Amino acid sequence: MLKNKIYKYLSTEILKNFITILFTFTAIAWTVRSVHFLDLMIEDGYSAKIYFKYSLLNISTIITRFVPLSFLLSLVISIVKFERQQELLILWTAGSSKIKVTNIFILVAFLITFLQIILALFINPFVLNKSRSLLREGGITQINSMLKVNDFSDSFKGITFYIEKKGSNGELLNIFIKDISGNLNTFINEVGISQGSTIIAKKGFIVDGKLVLFDGIMQTLNNKNEIKNIDFEKTELSISNFSTRTITQPKIQETSSYTLFQCLMKKNYNESLNNCSSENYKRDVIETLSRRAVMPLYTPLIAIIASFLLIYKKEQKYNYLKKYIVFIFAFMILLSAEILLKFTGFSLINFTLYFFSPVILFIVLYFLLIKNMITERTI
Predict the structure, then answer these.
(1) Which residue(s) pair with 162 in the sheet?
(2) What is the pTM (predicted TM-score) of this model?
Protein backbone atom coordinates (compact mmCIF):
# COMPACT_ATOMS: atom_id res chain seq x y z
CA MET A 1 0.00 0.00 0.00
CA LEU A 2 2.82 2.39 0.93
CA LYS A 3 4.67 1.65 -2.30
CA ASN A 4 1.52 2.32 -4.33
CA LYS A 5 1.18 5.71 -2.65
CA ILE A 6 4.82 6.48 -3.45
CA TYR A 7 4.39 5.46 -7.07
CA LYS A 8 1.26 7.59 -7.29
CA TYR A 9 3.18 10.51 -5.81
CA LEU A 10 5.97 10.12 -8.39
CA SER A 11 3.47 10.03 -11.26
CA THR A 12 1.60 13.06 -9.93
CA GLU A 13 4.77 15.12 -9.58
CA ILE A 14 5.87 14.29 -13.12
CA LEU A 15 2.46 15.21 -14.53
CA LYS A 16 2.40 18.46 -12.55
CA ASN A 17 5.78 19.48 -13.91
CA PHE A 18 4.76 18.37 -17.39
CA ILE A 19 1.57 20.46 -17.39
CA THR A 20 3.38 23.50 -15.96
CA ILE A 21 6.18 23.38 -18.54
CA LEU A 22 3.80 22.61 -21.41
CA PHE A 23 1.49 25.53 -20.69
CA THR A 24 4.44 27.87 -20.15
CA PHE A 25 5.86 27.01 -23.57
CA THR A 26 2.38 27.21 -25.09
CA ALA A 27 1.68 30.64 -23.59
CA ILE A 28 4.95 32.06 -24.92
CA ALA A 29 4.54 30.55 -28.40
CA TRP A 30 0.87 31.53 -28.59
CA THR A 31 1.70 35.13 -27.67
CA VAL A 32 4.33 35.31 -30.42
CA ARG A 33 1.96 33.74 -32.96
CA SER A 34 -0.90 36.05 -31.93
CA VAL A 35 1.31 39.05 -32.69
CA HIS A 36 1.92 37.57 -36.13
CA PHE A 37 -1.85 37.12 -36.59
CA LEU A 38 -2.37 40.86 -36.08
CA ASP A 39 -1.97 41.14 -39.85
CA LEU A 40 -5.49 39.73 -40.10
CA MET A 41 -6.79 43.02 -38.71
CA ILE A 42 -4.14 45.44 -39.94
CA GLU A 43 -3.53 44.12 -43.46
CA ASP A 44 -6.64 42.07 -44.24
CA GLY A 45 -9.35 44.05 -42.45
CA TYR A 46 -10.88 41.28 -40.32
CA SER A 47 -12.63 42.22 -37.09
CA ALA A 48 -11.05 41.88 -33.64
CA LYS A 49 -13.59 39.18 -32.80
CA ILE A 50 -12.44 37.00 -35.70
CA TYR A 51 -8.81 37.69 -34.81
CA PHE A 52 -9.23 36.47 -31.22
CA LYS A 53 -11.23 33.41 -32.26
CA TYR A 54 -8.67 32.52 -34.94
CA SER A 55 -5.81 32.90 -32.44
CA LEU A 56 -7.51 30.81 -29.77
CA LEU A 57 -8.26 27.98 -32.19
CA ASN A 58 -4.53 27.65 -32.91
CA ILE A 59 -3.64 26.83 -29.29
CA SER A 60 -4.17 23.07 -29.61
CA THR A 61 -1.57 22.76 -32.39
CA ILE A 62 0.98 24.64 -30.29
CA ILE A 63 0.29 22.34 -27.33
CA THR A 64 0.84 19.25 -29.49
CA ARG A 65 4.18 20.52 -30.81
CA PHE A 66 5.61 21.07 -27.32
CA VAL A 67 4.46 17.78 -25.74
CA PRO A 68 7.70 15.75 -26.33
CA LEU A 69 10.07 18.50 -25.16
CA SER A 70 7.88 19.33 -22.15
CA PHE A 71 7.75 15.67 -21.13
CA LEU A 72 11.53 15.36 -21.43
CA LEU A 73 12.09 18.43 -19.23
CA SER A 74 9.50 17.31 -16.69
CA LEU A 75 11.09 13.86 -16.33
CA VAL A 76 14.64 15.18 -15.98
CA ILE A 77 13.62 17.90 -13.52
CA SER A 78 11.48 15.48 -11.49
CA ILE A 79 14.19 12.79 -11.24
CA VAL A 80 16.84 15.34 -10.24
CA LYS A 81 14.44 16.74 -7.65
CA PHE A 82 13.70 13.28 -6.24
CA GLU A 83 17.43 12.61 -5.93
CA ARG A 84 18.19 15.90 -4.17
CA GLN A 85 15.40 15.37 -1.67
CA GLN A 86 16.58 11.81 -1.01
CA GLU A 87 13.17 10.47 -2.07
CA LEU A 88 14.67 7.95 -4.47
CA LEU A 89 17.11 6.76 -1.78
CA ILE A 90 14.20 6.16 0.58
CA LEU A 91 12.42 4.29 -2.19
CA TRP A 92 15.42 2.01 -2.86
CA THR A 93 15.92 1.44 0.86
CA ALA A 94 12.29 0.38 1.18
CA GLY A 95 12.97 -2.35 -1.38
CA SER A 96 11.35 -0.76 -4.42
CA SER A 97 12.65 -1.81 -7.81
CA LYS A 98 14.17 0.68 -10.24
CA ILE A 99 12.60 -1.31 -13.05
CA LYS A 100 9.20 -0.75 -11.43
CA VAL A 101 9.83 3.00 -11.29
CA THR A 102 10.94 2.93 -14.94
CA ASN A 103 7.71 1.16 -15.87
CA ILE A 104 5.77 3.93 -14.12
CA PHE A 105 7.60 6.51 -16.23
CA ILE A 106 6.74 4.51 -19.34
CA LEU A 107 3.10 4.20 -18.29
CA VAL A 108 2.86 7.98 -17.88
CA ALA A 109 4.56 8.37 -21.29
CA PHE A 110 2.01 6.10 -22.98
CA LEU A 111 -0.83 8.07 -21.40
CA ILE A 112 0.62 11.32 -22.76
CA THR A 113 1.24 9.65 -26.14
CA PHE A 114 -2.39 8.58 -26.35
CA LEU A 115 -3.58 12.13 -25.64
CA GLN A 116 -1.05 13.50 -28.13
CA ILE A 117 -2.31 11.19 -30.89
CA ILE A 118 -5.92 12.17 -30.18
CA LEU A 119 -4.97 15.83 -30.46
CA ALA A 120 -2.88 15.39 -33.61
CA LEU A 121 -5.16 13.01 -35.51
CA PHE A 122 -8.60 14.39 -34.71
CA ILE A 123 -8.80 17.58 -32.68
CA ASN A 124 -6.13 19.72 -34.37
CA PRO A 125 -7.38 19.24 -37.97
CA PHE A 126 -10.93 20.02 -36.82
CA VAL A 127 -10.09 23.24 -34.96
CA LEU A 128 -7.69 24.41 -37.69
CA ASN A 129 -10.37 23.87 -40.32
CA LYS A 130 -12.78 25.77 -38.07
CA SER A 131 -10.33 28.67 -37.84
CA ARG A 132 -9.98 28.75 -41.64
CA SER A 133 -13.77 28.81 -42.02
CA LEU A 134 -13.81 31.95 -39.85
CA LEU A 135 -11.81 33.74 -42.53
CA ARG A 136 -14.08 32.47 -45.29
CA GLU A 137 -17.29 33.50 -43.55
CA GLY A 138 -16.13 36.50 -41.55
CA GLY A 139 -15.85 39.08 -44.30
CA ILE A 140 -13.83 42.27 -44.34
CA THR A 141 -14.99 44.95 -41.91
CA GLN A 142 -12.06 47.35 -41.56
CA ILE A 143 -11.30 48.35 -45.13
CA ASN A 144 -10.63 51.97 -44.20
CA SER A 145 -7.76 50.98 -41.90
CA MET A 146 -6.20 48.86 -44.66
CA LEU A 147 -5.79 51.83 -46.99
CA LYS A 148 -2.51 53.64 -46.32
CA VAL A 149 -1.82 57.29 -47.14
CA ASN A 150 0.63 57.92 -50.00
CA ASP A 151 1.03 54.22 -50.61
CA PHE A 152 -0.18 51.80 -53.27
CA SER A 153 -2.21 49.18 -51.43
CA ASP A 154 -2.75 45.80 -53.12
CA SER A 155 -4.25 43.99 -50.12
CA PHE A 156 -7.28 43.09 -52.24
CA LYS A 157 -7.09 40.61 -55.08
CA GLY A 158 -7.11 42.37 -58.43
CA ILE A 159 -7.53 45.87 -56.96
CA THR A 160 -4.93 48.55 -56.21
CA PHE A 161 -5.71 51.63 -54.12
CA TYR A 162 -3.84 54.90 -53.74
CA ILE A 163 -5.01 57.51 -51.24
CA GLU A 164 -3.25 60.88 -51.02
CA LYS A 165 -4.83 62.02 -47.73
CA LYS A 166 -7.30 60.98 -45.06
CA GLY A 167 -9.61 63.40 -43.29
CA SER A 168 -10.21 63.35 -39.55
CA ASN A 169 -13.71 61.94 -40.12
CA GLY A 170 -12.41 59.04 -42.23
CA GLU A 171 -12.87 60.87 -45.53
CA LEU A 172 -10.56 59.74 -48.35
CA LEU A 173 -9.04 62.47 -50.53
CA ASN A 174 -7.60 62.24 -54.06
CA ILE A 175 -8.34 58.59 -54.73
CA PHE A 176 -6.86 56.41 -57.46
CA ILE A 177 -8.17 52.85 -58.01
CA LYS A 178 -6.95 50.29 -60.52
CA ASP A 179 -9.33 47.33 -60.86
CA ILE A 180 -8.39 44.34 -63.01
CA SER A 181 -10.87 41.95 -61.39
CA GLY A 182 -14.14 43.60 -62.50
CA ASN A 183 -15.46 43.83 -58.94
CA LEU A 184 -16.06 47.60 -59.10
CA ASN A 185 -18.08 47.72 -62.32
CA THR A 186 -21.49 47.04 -60.83
CA PHE A 187 -22.92 50.44 -61.66
CA ILE A 188 -22.47 49.91 -65.42
CA ASN A 189 -23.64 46.27 -65.38
CA GLU A 190 -20.36 44.84 -66.63
CA VAL A 191 -19.28 42.78 -63.67
CA GLY A 192 -16.59 40.28 -64.62
CA ILE A 193 -16.65 41.07 -68.36
CA SER A 194 -14.27 44.03 -68.43
CA GLN A 195 -10.52 43.73 -68.79
CA GLY A 196 -9.88 46.48 -66.29
CA SER A 197 -11.02 49.78 -64.88
CA THR A 198 -9.34 52.91 -63.60
CA ILE A 199 -11.16 55.26 -61.24
CA ILE A 200 -10.03 58.69 -60.11
CA ALA A 201 -12.05 60.69 -57.58
CA LYS A 202 -11.48 63.84 -55.53
CA LYS A 203 -12.92 62.37 -52.34
CA GLY A 204 -14.90 59.47 -50.95
CA PHE A 205 -15.69 57.40 -47.88
CA ILE A 206 -16.72 53.87 -46.94
CA VAL A 207 -20.08 53.27 -45.30
CA ASP A 208 -22.48 50.29 -45.01
CA GLY A 209 -20.41 48.05 -47.26
CA LYS A 210 -20.19 50.64 -50.03
CA LEU A 211 -17.46 52.86 -51.43
CA VAL A 212 -19.02 56.28 -52.07
CA LEU A 213 -17.03 58.50 -54.48
CA PHE A 214 -17.47 62.15 -55.50
CA ASP A 215 -16.32 64.19 -58.51
CA GLY A 216 -14.41 61.68 -60.55
CA ILE A 217 -13.98 59.75 -63.74
CA MET A 218 -14.01 56.06 -64.54
CA GLN A 219 -12.25 54.54 -67.53
CA THR A 220 -13.15 50.96 -68.51
CA LEU A 221 -11.62 48.65 -71.10
CA ASN A 222 -14.06 45.91 -72.16
CA ASN A 223 -13.37 42.59 -73.89
CA LYS A 224 -13.72 44.24 -77.28
CA ASN A 225 -10.83 46.58 -76.45
CA GLU A 226 -13.23 49.50 -76.36
CA ILE A 227 -12.58 52.24 -73.82
CA LYS A 228 -15.50 53.78 -71.98
CA ASN A 229 -15.14 57.00 -70.02
CA ILE A 230 -17.76 57.94 -67.44
CA ASP A 231 -17.74 61.20 -65.48
CA PHE A 232 -19.66 61.22 -62.22
CA GLU A 233 -20.49 63.62 -59.42
CA LYS A 234 -21.38 60.84 -57.03
CA THR A 235 -21.41 57.08 -57.30
CA GLU A 236 -21.65 54.15 -54.95
CA LEU A 237 -19.61 51.00 -55.54
CA SER A 238 -20.31 47.73 -53.77
CA ILE A 239 -17.34 46.29 -51.93
CA SER A 240 -19.04 43.00 -51.04
CA ASN A 241 -17.00 41.25 -53.74
CA PHE A 242 -13.68 42.35 -52.23
CA SER A 243 -11.40 39.54 -51.13
CA THR A 244 -8.00 39.75 -49.50
CA ARG A 245 -4.93 37.71 -50.33
CA THR A 246 -5.44 35.64 -47.18
CA ILE A 247 -5.72 31.94 -48.02
CA THR A 248 -9.25 30.80 -47.24
CA GLN A 249 -9.10 27.27 -48.66
CA PRO A 250 -8.13 24.58 -46.12
CA LYS A 251 -4.45 23.70 -46.07
CA ILE A 252 -3.26 20.13 -45.74
CA GLN A 253 -2.69 20.64 -42.00
CA GLU A 254 -6.37 21.58 -41.69
CA THR A 255 -7.66 18.51 -43.53
CA SER A 256 -9.06 15.61 -41.53
CA SER A 257 -6.89 12.52 -41.09
CA TYR A 258 -9.62 10.34 -42.59
CA THR A 259 -9.69 12.43 -45.78
CA LEU A 260 -5.90 12.32 -46.05
CA PHE A 261 -5.95 8.56 -45.60
CA GLN A 262 -8.52 8.29 -48.40
CA CYS A 263 -6.22 10.31 -50.62
CA LEU A 264 -3.27 8.09 -49.75
CA MET A 265 -5.25 4.95 -50.53
CA LYS A 266 -6.46 6.44 -53.84
CA LYS A 267 -10.01 6.69 -52.56
CA ASN A 268 -10.45 10.43 -52.81
CA TYR A 269 -14.16 11.09 -52.41
CA ASN A 270 -13.61 14.59 -51.08
CA GLU A 271 -13.83 17.35 -53.68
CA SER A 272 -11.69 19.66 -51.52
CA LEU A 273 -8.59 17.58 -52.35
CA ASN A 274 -8.17 18.56 -55.97
CA ASN A 275 -4.44 17.79 -55.89
CA CYS A 276 -4.82 14.29 -54.50
CA SER A 277 -3.50 12.66 -57.65
CA SER A 278 -0.30 14.73 -57.52
CA GLU A 279 2.81 12.89 -56.30
CA ASN A 280 4.08 16.01 -54.51
CA TYR A 281 0.76 16.33 -52.70
CA LYS A 282 0.89 12.71 -51.61
CA ARG A 283 4.35 13.30 -50.19
CA ASP A 284 2.89 16.09 -48.08
CA VAL A 285 0.04 13.78 -47.05
CA ILE A 286 2.46 11.09 -45.83
CA GLU A 287 4.52 13.70 -43.97
CA THR A 288 1.40 15.13 -42.33
CA LEU A 289 0.08 11.71 -41.28
CA SER A 290 3.54 10.79 -39.99
CA ARG A 291 3.60 13.89 -37.84
CA ARG A 292 0.17 13.11 -36.46
CA ALA A 293 0.49 9.37 -35.86
CA VAL A 294 4.20 8.50 -35.69
CA MET A 295 5.84 11.51 -34.05
CA PRO A 296 4.02 10.85 -30.72
CA LEU A 297 5.71 7.42 -30.56
CA TYR A 298 8.94 9.16 -29.62
CA THR A 299 7.46 10.20 -26.26
CA PRO A 300 7.77 6.72 -24.65
CA LEU A 301 11.32 6.60 -26.00
CA ILE A 302 12.03 9.76 -24.01
CA ALA A 303 10.86 7.99 -20.84
CA ILE A 304 13.38 5.18 -21.42
CA ILE A 305 16.26 7.60 -22.02
CA ALA A 306 15.41 9.67 -18.93
CA SER A 307 15.24 6.49 -16.83
CA PHE A 308 19.01 6.10 -17.25
CA LEU A 309 19.25 8.85 -14.63
CA LEU A 310 18.19 6.24 -12.08
CA ILE A 311 21.44 4.33 -12.58
CA TYR A 312 24.12 5.29 -10.07
CA LYS A 313 27.77 5.18 -10.99
CA LYS A 314 30.76 5.17 -8.65
CA GLU A 315 32.40 7.98 -10.58
CA GLN A 316 31.11 11.20 -9.03
CA LYS A 317 31.95 13.14 -12.18
CA TYR A 318 29.53 11.00 -14.21
CA ASN A 319 26.78 11.42 -11.63
CA TYR A 320 27.19 15.19 -11.86
CA LEU A 321 27.12 15.27 -15.66
CA LYS A 322 24.59 12.51 -16.32
CA LYS A 323 21.53 14.79 -16.29
CA TYR A 324 23.12 16.95 -19.00
CA ILE A 325 24.23 13.92 -21.03
CA VAL A 326 20.79 12.31 -20.84
CA PHE A 327 18.97 15.54 -21.71
CA ILE A 328 21.23 16.33 -24.69
CA PHE A 329 20.92 12.76 -26.02
CA ALA A 330 17.12 12.77 -25.72
CA PHE A 331 16.91 16.25 -27.23
CA MET A 332 19.01 15.14 -30.20
CA ILE A 333 16.63 12.20 -30.70
CA LEU A 334 13.66 14.60 -30.85
CA LEU A 335 15.54 16.97 -33.15
CA SER A 336 16.49 14.12 -35.49
CA ALA A 337 12.88 12.91 -35.53
CA GLU A 338 11.72 16.38 -36.53
CA ILE A 339 14.31 16.65 -39.31
CA LEU A 340 13.79 13.13 -40.69
CA LEU A 341 10.05 13.75 -40.75
CA LYS A 342 10.57 15.86 -43.87
CA PHE A 343 11.83 12.82 -45.80
CA THR A 344 9.06 10.34 -44.92
CA GLY A 345 7.03 11.16 -48.02
CA PHE A 346 9.81 10.47 -50.52
CA SER A 347 9.61 6.68 -50.38
CA LEU A 348 8.00 3.76 -48.58
CA ILE A 349 11.41 2.82 -47.15
CA ASN A 350 11.80 6.25 -45.56
CA PHE A 351 8.36 6.03 -43.98
CA THR A 352 8.96 2.46 -42.74
CA LEU A 353 12.29 3.42 -41.17
CA TYR A 354 10.75 6.46 -39.54
CA PHE A 355 7.85 4.42 -38.19
CA PHE A 356 9.92 1.56 -36.74
CA SER A 357 12.86 3.65 -35.48
CA PRO A 358 11.22 4.71 -32.18
CA VAL A 359 9.88 1.17 -31.64
CA ILE A 360 13.26 -0.49 -32.20
CA LEU A 361 15.14 2.10 -30.14
CA PHE A 362 12.59 1.70 -27.36
CA ILE A 363 13.09 -2.08 -27.19
CA VAL A 364 16.90 -1.89 -27.42
CA LEU A 365 17.27 0.85 -24.81
CA TYR A 366 14.75 -0.82 -22.50
CA PHE A 367 16.73 -4.08 -22.38
CA LEU A 368 19.99 -2.14 -22.06
CA LEU A 369 18.49 -0.19 -19.15
CA ILE A 370 17.31 -3.38 -17.39
CA LYS A 371 20.74 -4.96 -17.90
CA ASN A 372 22.45 -1.94 -16.31
CA MET A 373 20.02 -1.93 -13.40
CA ILE A 374 20.55 -5.64 -12.74
CA THR A 375 24.34 -5.21 -13.02
CA GLU A 376 24.23 -2.27 -10.62
CA ARG A 377 22.23 -4.32 -8.11
CA THR A 378 24.69 -7.21 -8.15
CA ILE A 379 27.77 -5.05 -7.67
Answers:
(1) 152, 176
(2) 0.77
